[in-house]
Amino acid sequence: MKKTSVRTRMLTGTAAVTALAAAGVGAVSASAETTDTPAAPAAVKVDTQNKNLAQSTGLNIDAATRAAQAALDAANKAGQHVSVAVVDRDGVTRVLLKGDGAGPQATESAERKAFTAVSWNAPTSELAKRLAQAPNLKDIPGTLFLAGGAPVQSKGAPVAGIGVAGAPSGDLDEQFAQAGVAALGK
Amino acid sequence: MKKTSVRTRMLTGTAAVTALAAAGVGAVSASAETTDTPAAPAAVKVDTQNKNLAQSTGLNIDAATRAAQAALDAANKAGQHVSVAVVDRDGVTRVLLKGDGAGPQATESAERKAFTAVSWNAPTSELAKRLAQAPNLKDIPGTLFLAGGAPVQSKGAPVAGIGVAGAPSGDLDEQFAQAGVAALGK
Amino acid sequence: MKKTSVRTRMLTGTAAVTALAAAGVGAVSASAETTDTPAAPAAVKVDTQNKNLAQSTGLNIDAATRAAQAALDAANKAGQHVSVAVVDRDGVTRVLLKGDGAGPQATESAERKAFTAVSWNAPTSELAKRLAQAPNLKDIPGTLFLAGGAPVQSKGAPVAGIGVAGAPSGDLDEQFAQAGVAALGK
Amino acid sequence: MKKTSVRTRMLTGTAAVTALAAAGVGAVSASAETTDTPAAPAAVKVDTQNKNLAQSTGLNIDAATRAAQAALDAANKAGQHVSVAVVDRDGVTRVLLKGDGAGPQATESAERKAFTAVSWNAPTSELAKRLAQAPNLKDIPGTLFLAGGAPVQSKGAPVAGIGVAGAPSGDLDEQFAQAGVAALGK
Amino acid sequence: MKKTSVRTRMLTGTAAVTALAAAGVGAVSASAETTDTPAAPAAVKVDTQNKNLAQSTGLNIDAATRAAQAALDAANKAGQHVSVAVVDRDGVTRVLLKGDGAGPQATESAERKAFTAVSWNAPTSELAKRLAQAPNLKDIPGTLFLAGGAPVQSKGAPVAGIGVAGAPSGDLDEQFAQAGVAALGK
Amino acid sequence: MKKTSVRTRMLTGTAAVTALAAAGVGAVSASAETTDTPAAPAAVKVDTQNKNLAQSTGLNIDAATRAAQAALDAANKAGQHVSVAVVDRDGVTRVLLKGDGAGPQATESAERKAFTAVSWNAPTSELAKRLAQAPNLKDIPGTLFLAGGAPVQSKGAPVAGIGVAGAPSGDLDEQFAQAGVAALGK
Amino acid sequence: MKKTSVRTRMLTGTAAVTALAAAGVGAVSASAETTDTPAAPAAVKVDTQNKNLAQSTGLNIDAATRAAQAALDAANKAGQHVSVAVVDRDGVTRVLLKGDGAGPQATESAERKAFTAVSWNAPTSELAKRLAQAPNLKDIPGTLFLAGGAPVQSKGAPVAGIGVAGAPSGDLDEQFAQAGVAALGK
Amino acid sequence: MKKTSVRTRMLTGTAAVTALAAAGVGAVSASAETTDTPAAPAAVKVDTQNKNLAQSTGLNIDAATRAAQAALDAANKAGQHVSVAVVDRDGVTRVLLKGDGAGPQATESAERKAFTAVSWNAPTSELAKRLAQAPNLKDIPGTLFLAGGAPVQSKGAPVAGIGVAGAPSGDLDEQFAQAGVAALGK
Q1: Mind telling me how many Å the CA of F33 is from chain G's nearest CA?
Q2: CA distances (Å), origin B11, targets A77, A182, B5, B8, C180
Q3: What pLDDT, on the 0 to 100 scale, is given for residue H50?
Q4: ipTM
């Protein structure tokens, strides 16, 4: 590689960055996208001052950890051995806790329940019922339509998903996931 | 599943959401994390009004598409057949364009260059040089240490990565990627 | 490796190329394969002048991008957050747009719907109905039998597939996909 | 799903198809893209009469099978046990022959050599030498920089790749691959 | 599926086996393992002279190629665009032919049908019926319970599987697969 | 890297190890978690003397091999060709035996049955019945809800799973798996 | 399936369980395997009273979470954005924390560093040096030979691994990992 | 690695082959393949009576298990914790034993060493040396060029591979693998 061209590129890159910085990242306008439809409204808000940028909202790691721990604690109190996952709006895992005695199936199950809950912004117990109308929804990669996943919402939009797996029933798993959600409101 | 427990869960969920909403999503404090270290500062800003939330900055789809198109146009002008990828701060693909005549290796190559650039907040031509000190960096899954990837920055932090592959040299690929970055500053 | 043998190989290779070139790539004979069967006729046309070659038809990147953008615009107008994929006749992704606010499940869902539509040359809403007769069709790797995919045809044969995912119903997704197809006719 | 909307979609789809068909698929203009650069020129030719379409050239299955068989025959004559793969311009396998006595490593090795040869339009023995300048090229997914792959060209552009693996040296593998290429010129 | 064609296929299969027997392999003792059980008897024979070794029977590459070509020819005669796979007793692909115009879903579909047929030593049209009793059989990795796969038997034991995919119905696919089996008896 | 910091780290590491060692690994308190619920109690016992550690119980390799061999012997006596897997409490394979003549589908099938049995601490024949209530359980990655898997228990908690596959029915497979379990009691 | 055979199986299973239970799980004999060799001694201790069982030692989830949090806190104090993983002796993830602002490459990088450290019972900074003698060690699946991983030991044997990734250097990452280890000794 | 131990291993390997010859399989010509050719002769024999069939030779499960157990016993005697894999000529795992205390990296490492040894019909310690001439050999999927793999031969052709992993050095691993080979000659 010629050194000259590398320098040129870097200057170009700097110029672009400057332009973005000049545009600023100011006040976040209120999003109008939070309807009560069962669809997947999102936590992305259009930035009114820089035509290139969008802000998205998520849990910080402290909140995500607190929520996961609360879900695990709820399971422990109930004498259940579970794993807990918290994923962000993009389905990426932020926190994973494989509880003592949780089976090997619980980890990916928890992650998929969390992924499913945040994807459709609804508890997976509700989503499982939708399969009666659209049975092939469950063929979408990454999903799991079993009770145990709950969305975390901000202004109605999903910002995270909590998934729990390992208890004898999905109902129990989802109670623990909701305990995780509830911990964020304290 | 008993309907009662489902209703209970939903109320719990609603309570949590209300709590988050009450906390609000206000003014975004300026992040102090944009040092000039070669490390990976990030576009996450702590929300000062809700202890649970963090805002992150990314390109909107219009900007991402415009950047990808600009990179492809630059390649076309130079008579090169390439593919272009734009990924967000989490490495997730936002835009992918497999150009006419681009080889089959170009798609994943472009995505990995973009992933690598946004992960370390530097052009991949620069990152490839770091292998002299830390040769095993290139064993990190998802990465590709070949010129052709460029970060998009906002206030010094990476908010996206643009990757180009398919030209006869990485130098050319990276010129096209930088043309994509530059298009965001116009 | 001996240099001599490399040279020999190259000469051999050149000879082969010459032979192909001599055979030419002339007028494309009309294909007779476009029946109205629900099967998968293809866009491959036998080259009458070179016994080795076949021509296949696809969208160029400008058309594919225009179609994807039109599908995304249609979704935006309807207030929906979706991802859009355009794949070629071989199921390879040409364009991918992850729209603002589209959930994490939408990307692969869109790609699979497009893949499915081009594989059977029919909208996925139609294909989903065929599962009543052949339920295991949906076990074929890479497919997704959910409304939202539409084929792009040239002379009745599939040359591309457009897939949309993220709206509250597959019906909506498919409307947007069809808007993408329609944009190619303008 | 409402039947009405399905019918609407189908009509929309038909309209689009008609538009494409009206545009026609006429004479294929000669491509000007065949330079002698070592880059990756491609076999895609812009269709001058329909702004949406592009034609691409590949081997038909008879030619691909004949080439693969010729490569295998050459290996057999030399007393070697190999596997042979023929991939198209997009790296998709058209023919695979796992020869008698070929080791288990040979199949994917042959496919990757063919993929690599068609991606860069050069024999893999040549491409392996380029690693001296760009060692990380070999980290691109799907590639293998070992002698034994040869491109099939039409008018200088790659239309297929042939890969052979299993002989005691890559030199031998590549001789057999070139025998496959040569069979297309007979 | 029409019952008639299924019966035809089964007769064809039987004919093929007889043909193999007629072709040689010494005196074909009616193997005691060819009961009508749906189990998976195997082609492994204990070597009486070395306590460590077992012999297994498979198709040689010439036979496998001939069978695959015959299946493809049968499809072509019927005006169908398919892909064909021949796998050995261990499910490993020996021959793969992606026919002109075959859709992208056909390759892996053909391989899985062949895998399924050789695993249970029965045509996949028959195996698909067993799902009525054991619906979760189809969750076994690598399988596909769609008509189109046929076992190749020697002395009643499976020595290979032929899979065809891409025709408008599995019935047609399986006719072509059986044509491939029959070609081994000629 | 600076040598100084490496030395510092090592000392830190040593300190941590010492602390753990000082805490000791004493008498294992009896676990109270063995209820008769169909859930997934686990073989982890809290260590009362070191707040950091937990003990888990598994089969040693001699026992696991003996169990696998007993399962295979039982199949051989019944004239069946099967594969056998023994996994530990975490679903990790300890022993795998691909029996003579076992089909290619049997290996992963056996592993998944063993995984499923140890995950829910019940024979897979029982677990398959639960799908009537919770059909989507079978979508959890790694599982297979076919008879043929049996848990190995210690004090009621699962410590291993044995899976068998390849016989004409899951009932037979599970008899062989149970023969493997029984061999541990001799 | 016949109910009778199921009952029989269950009785057999119960018998086996009883046998195991009768054998008991008594005092854990001191392991003699803790040499100072750089090899991979393990935390498995032979159970002297039940010939089938072995005990293995791991961190409980409270300890694993505390260690992960300590590592993340150390990074935060240093102004670094990292991800942290804690894996058990079998390389299975127990805790994963994707810190605020950590790049997308950090998650799997952290898990692999932890996996590598527990596999060889040494910090990855030390292990990276071994590549001078055995460069292909780094080709073992699941590993990453970059500083940032540290083993947790009990009586000299590895019981867990902590991996950190995301800081500008592996040295920093490993300081944070060691802070996690040290937290277990408090 | 010490050259002396390599020589020892090779002698051991030769001894094993002789032992196999002594065991029968007709007149076992002392194999000439321990020449220095790196090729991969194979155990497939053309069936002279049926033009379609070929016979291949492998270990039966009893022999494979005996060999694996012998390798594990040798490791145990040396106080090492390892995993052992035996694969057939097609690289398919026949036996897997994850020894007590073997690290999580050992399983796939053992399988890949066995795969590599049977693919090239040579101990992996020898194969690792070939990388000096052909460094990219190690990029072939499924392989691992670390000492610890040994081929099992019949009449000079590879019929199986034994891989061992987990000891502090590959030299030790390969001694144990060779002990497994030697056990077949007893």
Answers
A1: 15
A2: 21, 10, 10, 5, 41
A3: 85
A4: 0.80
